[in-house]
Amino acid sequence: MTMQETEERGGRGTEKLMTGTQAVAQAVRLADVDVTAAYPIRPYDGVMQAVAKLIADGDLDAEYIVAEGEHSQFEICKHASAVGSRVFVGSSGVGWMYAMESLAVTPSLRLPVVAMIGNRALDDPGAFGVEHNDAMSVRDLGWQLNWVENAQECFDATLMAYRVAEDSRVSFPVGIGVDGAFITHSQTLIKIPDQEMVDEFLPPYDLGDRLLHPDNPISIAPQANEDWVMEIRKQTDDAAKRVKGVIQEAHDDFKRIFGRGGDNPFFEEYMTEDAEYVLFGMGSLSLPAKVMVRRLRDQGEKVGFVRLKWFRPFPTEEMVEVLTRFKAVGIVDRDYSYGSPKQGGVLFTDLRAALYDAEVRPRLVNFIGGLGGRELTPEMMDDMADTTKRAAAGEDVPTVRWIGVRE
Amino acid sequence: MTMAPGRALQLDPIKSIKKAPEEEYYQSGHRTCQGCLSALPMRLMAKAAGPRTIVLGTTGCMYVANTTYMSTPWVVPWMHTQLGAAGSAALGTSAGLKALMRKGKIKDEPINVIAFCGDGGGADMGLAAISAALTDVEYNLLIFLYDNESYANTDIQTSGQTPWGAVTTFSPPGKKHRIMQRRWKKNVPGMLAAGHPDTKYIASGTPAIPVDMMDKVRAALSAGGPTYVHVLDPCPKGWHYDPEHSTELGKLAIETGIYPLYEIKEGVCNFTGTTRQIAQGRRERKPVREYLEKQGRFAHFKNQDFAYFQKKIDEMWEQWIIPGVIAFSYGGPINITSEKATVRNNNVERDNASWAGERPGHAHEELEGDGGLDREWRDDNMMGDPSSGN
Amino acid sequence: MTTGREAGDALPADQDTQQGHTSTEVREEAKSVEFTYRGIFQKTLAANLCKHVVMAARKREWLGSTIQRYSDSPERNGIPAKQFAVIAPDTETLEGHMAKYEPNELDVITCLDDTMADGIESWAWYGRQPINVRLRRGGTLLVISNRSKEELLRIIPQKPWDWTLAILPGTPSLAGLWVYRDDGTDMRVLGAIASSRPDIFEMSEIEAVIRDDDALGDDYIAALKSGHDEVVVHEIKAGEGAEDTYEPVKLPGYKEMREAIIVPAVKVGEKNPNYRTSSDRTMRPVVNFDTCIKCRQCWIDCPDECFDITDEELHPINYNYCTGCGICAQVCPVEDCIVMVNDLEFVEEGDKDMFPLYKEDRDSYQEWREEKIEKGRIQHHDYFNADTWAWAGSGQAENTPDRNDRTARNS
User: What domain count does chain B have?
Assistant: First the structure.
């Protein structure tokens, strides 16, 4: 079978039916995670339930601690990581926010904690459907963040996360955004590779001379005054710039071993070859978007869709190269950013910044939709495509529009 | 016979100053106040624990004063953790080591895990995490709370351990209110002991009585499972007294009965030192005024304030079922421990209990599985999985 | 004098200060006044003084600001700290001196405890900085001291230009956070500044401020005048004073620093090489090794790990790190086995370990020891300055009606 054929058949591995959270749990098992801490909040906690079962059945040998709150949950994993344990942790919505202090300090400590965020709307009101603001809230702090489209990617992204996070040139925590309900709670058929393949891809976790152990006397993170913090942050900045290269390397390896992963690790282009305008977004909204693209293509429209996978590091050069081919880009934000420069969403604001220096810039329009778990339908995608098309044609359209709100 | 991975390090009691180990594992060159009796416990704790130790230090005086980048006074490995994270840092560190040892990824040997916190970070913000750590009996760890009765590092604010009436920057006396701090100090070691019956060791000490404190640290580290030691630290900055009187004030706190020394070891509660003499009636409690009037933080007290404070301490000694430890009166029916106190935790045997620390029968093999189920447990997670035969 | 432009240094010798003017030459420039003090013990005193400088300058329509040096915080008992008052004729000039941790150079440095005159080490990596490290050309160092000019110049480093040393007779006024030591020191210092540096504020200006405050009575004016009259100002020539051996700190760059905020631990048997706590001391313990009963109480109770244990089971003290807290002298069961002595009696010795002298020549050691005690013995301190009564929080310039009512607490 050729690589393409393998890829089309979903890559190498045994076929299983499972939810996104269960898929992550399988990757946790194959990665031989050592310590995990759980705290209940929907919709991520299916992964912790699945991991518990794996341990109970003897399929995974790991310490499983039920914390008394998310702050502790993440602190437990951060410290287990510091003594050399591979860890897994996760949360959703305000649970993730409750851990915020721990989230803030983990990247500065350069600890490769891997976390799954079952994306969920932030309170208030308490709402349980998908929004991306929870994971996005750590985007400035050094967390590497990527979003998945389906259960297979949940599995794949988890293995990639360990590989990238633990690389000594990186050593940052990695967060995987998994849309609540649509990916966390629906089962699809995925390929699970065997242990041998995973071992070839994922080396053991080795902190070297950063390991906290009596044989290696060090002090980690004394308090620092204004003489030192610039330099400490610069080290982090230099490391952050190395992440893209490491992701690319890891991706090439992943494709070779597992037979899937797409052309590049950072984003997916869907029917964009001769497109005049495209929609752009992250996560499961890509599914109705792709339905829309196929439908409109059938009608002769030159439309495509670009799905961003890695949000941090933001693949600026690649985005510029790809998006400047189009006359207009309609960015679908499943998040909000009140009071931001154009009062658009986070992706939109970031993309505008990324494209600012390009010689030829596409028109950018923004759609805020799907908040709090509201479905984004192919019909809504049609509507957004239409606006984007009119923008491409030079028409006057609102820069930011909220989709599907009852007036 | 192989022992449970991550078993407790066995350390003998020190018993006298002359027998205290001479090596220092926390050394000179820390930016603490003159006469800081929160620094002394760091030194004594590290001395008692020895080199096979990992220390996690929460934010507070003992973080900011001690460890100033790019330097450190610690000889043993040390890592910063967050203000309310002593419990979770200790748990994570201990669980991390245990997993690696069990899985053969690092050498299986006893390593002390100690997380220290101040009264602000521990008794207030981090209390829930400490409680959680104390319930997780599979992990060896010591949570060491240094109590200087304020949030000291932020220049002295009220914490749940600040004594009634004390001046802090959040409780200054003024024209309308003389007493701004009107909460009575909550009883943390007693609370934790009462609420976590499965822990094997909880104690209250002070660096003013150094050998007793070090022996309590050693007893905690050797006990196995999660443990807690609380020490009272006179603080010249926050309490406003001349630093040379630190040791003396620590002793006075005990001699007045305000701060009791005790330990709860495997379910048996005993007072130690001077507190024991007071409990046995062999020594009178000194009046609380003798202690309070030596500190500037009580300089605004009037006779009525001293009287109130005295009454509360008298009440503690006369009406609590165990003074300083358990704050209830008890009217019977009597099932109070008989004359000979029975050691708990040895009475209830559990087959193949997964327990940290050295106990016969708790070996690697046991932790591999306690038997498991006879039949398949099916739940949502398994439904529809082709491989499970549904 | 080797100075550079790294953080913590004074301006280089060849670079003139503020448009070529010395400190007293032009009155219409901004002026910066520093108060160097014992952390916590003199915190409120320093704050009070800073405030009064600004209030006095206000009398001639100037603007001012006080700065608490943030890098000192949180303050610790005994660790030298600084607060500043900056005054300027107008807003624009004042702004040039704001948004910084400390002024680049000082017109007046006031040392509120003369045991800091031999240098201060406020935090790690900077070493022991001279008391006058940032003095402006022609500036004034004002020291509260009963020592002579000659004694002080043995420990205060020279400058390559002229300056003045003002000595206000007195002992350091040490208090704590909650109860202010209302002993007139603040007034005396203000009077001394008015006398030695009328360009900062004149006597009439500061007197007007004090009279404005109803809570302050005649005894405050008297104290103000006594400071004014008793301060002695000495002209110090370039090159006069101790040798300046201070090496400005060289901080490593980010490529040399280990990643992930990691610092190597102290090696077994060693101490933290980057921070010595010896400049915290106002007094130091002197040991009579002959009467020591080897109980180890001093060794175990020292919060700074300063006592060694020799083969003879004796306990010499590491003066590089001793902070002079006095606990050892208190806990030692043998009378006068450990005696606290004023730290300025040890200029010759510096931080040197004196135990080798004892081992080599017991009699000489005892002679040395007795001489030190004779000259500078410090008696045990009271618990706190209960003899004075003025709420630290409310400060001097505000109403504290209970201030003089010492009977109130006994009702």
Answer: 1
* Mean pLDDT value across residues A245-252: 98
CATH classification (class only), A267-402: alpha beta
The partner residue sitting opposite B76, judged by closest CB among C179, C265, C411, is C265
Give domain status of residue B351, yes or no: no
Task: Give the C-alpha separation, A223 to B315, whole Å.
Answer: 43
**B132 is in which domain, residue-wise?**
4-318
Q: How confident is the model at residue A141 (pLDDT cuts 50, 70, 90)?
A: very high
Type of residue at A242:
R
Does the residue B87 lie in any domain? yes
Nearest-Cα distance to chain B for A122, in Å, is 23
CATH 3.40.50.920 occupies which residues in chain A? 267-402
How far is the alpha carbon of A52 from chain B, nearest alpha carbon, in Å?
A: 11
DSSP-derived 3-state class of residue A256: helix
Q: Quick check: A278 pLDDT over 80?
A: yes
Pairwise CB contact (< 8 Å): B384 & A85: no
Does B37 lie at the interface with C, CB-CB under 8 angstroms? yes
Q: Do the Cβ atoms of B37 and C303 come within 8 Å?
A: yes
The shortest CB-CB distance from A217 to any of C252, C259, C265 is to C265
Fold of A3-258: Rossmann fold (3.40.50)
Which chains lie within 8 Å of chain C at 3 or more CB pairs, if any?
A, B
pLDDT of residue B336: 63
**Residue B176 within a domain:** yes
Residue C266 CB-density burial (10 A; 0-12 exposed, 13-18 middle, 19+ buried): buried
Question: Under an 8 A CB cutoff, do B248 and C330 touch?
Answer: yes
Residues of chain A with CATH 3.40.50.970: 3-258
Per-residue burial over A114-123, b if 16 or more Cβ lie within 10 Å, else e, is bbbbbbbbbe
B91, closest residue in chain A (CA to CA): A76
Mutation target to probe the B interface, by most B beta carbons within 10 A, among A45, A76, A213 is A76
ipTM of the complex as predicted: 0.94
DSSP helix/strand/coil, B230: strand
- pLDDT tens across A311-326, in order? 999 999 999 999 999 9
Lowest mean pLDDT among A26-40, B346-360, C108-122: B346-360
- Residue B70 within a domain: yes
Provide DSSP, C118-183: T-B--STTS--B-TTTTEEEEEEEEEE-SS-HHHHHTTSBP-SS-EEEEEE--------SSB---S
pLDDT at C13 over 70: no
Predicted model pTM: 0.93
Those of residues 48-77 in B touching chain C at CB distance below 8 A are 51, 61, 64-65, 67-77
Least confident of A111-115, A178-182, B299-303, B384-388: B384-388
Mean pLDDT of chain B: 89
Q: State whether residue C23 is helix, strand or coil.
A: coil
- CA angle in degrees (0–180, nearest 5) for A173-A178-A183: 155
Q: Contact C261/A227, CB-based, under 8 Å? A: no
Question: Are the beta carbons of B54 and A84 separated by less than 8 Å?
Answer: no
pLDDT in tens, A26-61: 999 999 999 999 999 999 999 999 999 999 999 999
The nearest alpha carbon in chain C to A112 belongs to: C260
pLDDT in tens, A148-201: 999 999 999 999 999 999 999 999 999 999 999 999 999 999 999 999 999 999
The answer to whether C74 contacts B23, with C-beta atoms less than 8 Å apart, is no
Nearest CA in chain C to A220: C262
* Residue C51 tokens, joined: 């405030």
With beta carbons less than 8 A apart as the criterion, state whether A9 and A1 touch: yes
How many CA atoms within 13 Å lie on the side-chain side of B68?
Answer: 25
CATH number of the domain that B207 lies in? 3.40.50.970
Chain B residues closer than 8 Å to A228 by CB: 69-70
